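Record format v2
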Amino acid sequence: MTELVAEELVHVYREGGVRALDGVSLRIGAGERVALIGQNGSGKTTLVRHLNGLLRPTSGRVLVDGADAATLTVAQLARTVGLVFQDPDRQIFAPSVRDEVEFGPRNVGLAGAELRAAVANALAATGLAEAASVNPYDLGGSRRKLLALAGVLAMRTPVLVLDEPTTGQDARGVERVRALIDEAHRSGRTVLTVSHDMRFVAETADRVIVMRQGRVVLDGTPAEAFGPDAWEVLRSTHVEPPLPARVGHRLGLASIATDASLLDALREGAPGAGERPQ
Amino acid sequence: MAAVAVGGFVGPLLLVALGVVLPAVLAGVIGQLARLTLLLSLPIAISAVLVNVFFFPGGETVLLRLGPITATAEGLVFALEILVRILAISGAITLFYLTTRPAELVVDLERRGVSPRVAFVASASVQTVPAMVERAGQITAAQRARGLDTEGSAWRRVRGIVPIVGPVILGAIGEVEERTMALEARGFTRPGRRTLLWWPPDSAWERVLRWAVALAVPVLIVARVAGWLTWLP
Amino acid sequence: MLTLEAVSYRYAGARRAALRDVDLELRDGEVLGIVGASEAGKTTLALVASGLAPRAIGGTLRGVVRIDGRDVAAAPMHEMAAQVAIGFQNPATQLSGVTETVFEEVAFGPMNLAVPRNEVIGRTWDALASLRIEPLAERHPARLSGGQQQLVAIAGLLALRPRHLVLDEPTAQLDPAGTDLVAEALSHLSARGASICVTEQKTDLLAGLATRVAVIDAGAIAFSGPADEVLADPRLADLGVAAPSAVRLYRVADAAGLSPVARDRLTAALAEELDVR
């Protein structure tokens, strides 16, 4: 059971002295499915890099599973928190897809049958099983991105952090990522997704955290975070709620984030109208 | 060049003082210059001095005897001569790097009719370094996130080289083609002069100084060959 | 007008053709959207349309690419630069790497084309203004975020004042605010008579921007037509292309068995919302 806690986290970059995190406190419980949103430069990427120790706090602290992250190396934290970067080309180095996927799990100590199973599952989940012996650079952008994801998935970390998993993906790739988040959630893993795609966020997260200038300004269910009460704050962060939320607002319906919840609310006499279906 | 042309060590020493140290002090980069010069030329200087002090052929005035090898006064003088020349050359080059902005150099070369492509190579080789450093940093972060241990023993760190250097090189190669296309699409290969937006100021006395320096080299070479400089030790 | 007539293209060393028998017309003042799954041939199409393939990267081309009726294979590459500008999705490779300020970077193209100095300066400020990045003018291009770099790269293309602009997923690296800026700049450019061909995964962006859309699948044009018709076509899903949000919402509404009253309310609200945008 892995929970992530940030306490009064502050991060000031040495170059330029930018205060990228300005006192972030939050708790992400084990098995939660969370989305982190906000404009470029709001501090999202800085925050997630604290969760596996790639960045260290200027002040405040990060607790992973109750342990102060400052006492652990990145290699140790990588056993708990798997972080997938936005740009796959900044990590792919192996001569084949399979070798590339094996790199992470080997580093965290998987071997033998366990390693083979982890790699096979990750390849299957990302649709890359048939491309296992292909050179990664012969894959198109969409599949290279899925490959980077498979490489972290195979590490079987209890926490999965995805930085912009849908950029540059075609529709099939986006569906794969969605299915993969659902599967990770079902198996009890904590999933944190950083994304600009509000529709994707509304449909794949149970909790939305909105950042602006290094602070958390909203934290709630998608229906709350995209609801009318939050609009003023969202506008100040240049985040536009997904289309169903905007249409729902015009129709005077509250608590709408997804197509499904909008239709539920419109269906006359439907019980629980306006609630997000589980 | 002048340092080689002028014989002895007093001449080159004067040149170092006038041509490297003085302008470096004026430009306020003397500290950096000293550090870099030490770093770059110290290993060569030490080996040059040792080799010459002990193995200078025809050295007669013995200063010190260490078993089968002897240090000679002639060797020491010659070593000093070599040393000041190394100082003059490396100092001048370092000074050039410290005081010349690549962009100004490129614009100035172009203004004098050098092909933009040559200027591009000169400038791009300097400018790609920060981009490569940035890229290597991002790759290191991504591999550490996958459990690559860069904080452990020396052996572990060695094992970490391939996953980090691999993508740096693969990425750089992959980007060359796209970068070439992007340049081509922006008319970079068009023959003829480009429009320049600005060029570095070039005052009258700078021009005079440049010509004076350029003239000094042949003058000194002639002076040396003609034997006018023999009064300098 | 830019036309592709029965164009097939094969990359150097590749076994199969990346484009097969493509006929396409980019009319003056129009925004043509190209959609398709990853690896379907969108980038190749952009390279061929801009004349970079095969001239800069080799490979074999069959068929003809014409600008205003003239075969581009006959013109030197640098003449193409004044006719067709092309932008790629990776901002890092689009910056020249030799400039020290954003201003010089944006001015780079027109400077190469020997546009008079005062006009270069005017065009550069115009291009910076149209993407609202004038505050970046003095910054070093290498020290910007990926999104900012992408805007600078696009500004560099706008400063070329191209009659034809080909963009390969120009907003892939941008956040929604940056995406909106690009969309706005492109619609201004097309209003001034330029023709724009843009490949995109973001069909929501194309829904508000493109006049026509062509769908590419396995190197061939599967179908094409007016943007609203193509983007509402149910075949898109099979070709790996996501329908725009509005289309998906209408579609779910139809399938969900709403009462006629509820559906009318939804339709009206949706129309209002899209109109405001």
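The radius of gyration of chain B is 25 Å.
Residues 4 and 85 of chain B are 7 Å apart (CA to CA).
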